[in-house]
């Protein structure tokens, strides 16, 4: 046989990374069973064997690599059954490792921090929006899994979540998780704060620390007292945006089409721009002046002109990328 099929190689690589699915492990087990007596399997599996750290995997590969050509003696009937059991147990262990690892050690490729007096607005890969307050830290996947939308937060942030009934959105703050399917809420979770607070401005969320679970709706706040580990809910009157949103947001080297999307979402305006400047990159600081004045400065930086059609509709005419 000599060489392994490409799909088997891919499965071995996934096992090494802890990413193999149960279906892929079953395919590997079937391949091993069918080629148990093939001497070429020894060389093909050698590199995988040397990196295997599970005793059951080593036992399984020992059987394969020590088999070579069939020996001239009668193999006990029970041996194939033992091998089958080992295959089955190995598959269970690998699946458990994969799902446990995915739950306990997720990989967050994007890591964003704000300094003191610095604010940032972020569009997540699923098109949800985040407004990150000062001295805060957020982590999330650049390419989230189909069944998981999850961010880690330390500090304070407002989330406007894109609706998806089948894939809940979770904000993890230490032991606490805040889950919803599409709404607007603010999470206050600075590391040194005595409590975590979740304010629901729109929709509803579920908050849990693993032992307790509370649902909160529009104009309700959930408090998690860190020392006593108690969850409490209160009815409050919440503004559409927290007070800290009135401070400035800095946009550094952002594409105009992304800036337009964020400004329309945050300021509840309509901004029309010509397609030829949609890919232009700009620098902008908003919040220190009116939105109209800020848009005027952006238009002028692109050699364009700002027009205001009504209270909430603006248009940038002309302009070129610099």
TrEMBL record:
One Pfam assignment: FecR
Leader sequence residues: none
Coiled coil: none
Transmembrane domains' residue ranges: 78-99
Keywords from the UniProt entry: Membrane, Transmembrane, Transmembrane helix
Domain FecR protein: 111-205
GO MF entries: sigma factor antagonist activity
Superkingdom assignment: Bacteria
InterPro entries: FecR (IPR006860), Ferrdict_sens_TM (IPR012373)
Name of this chain's protein: FecR family protein
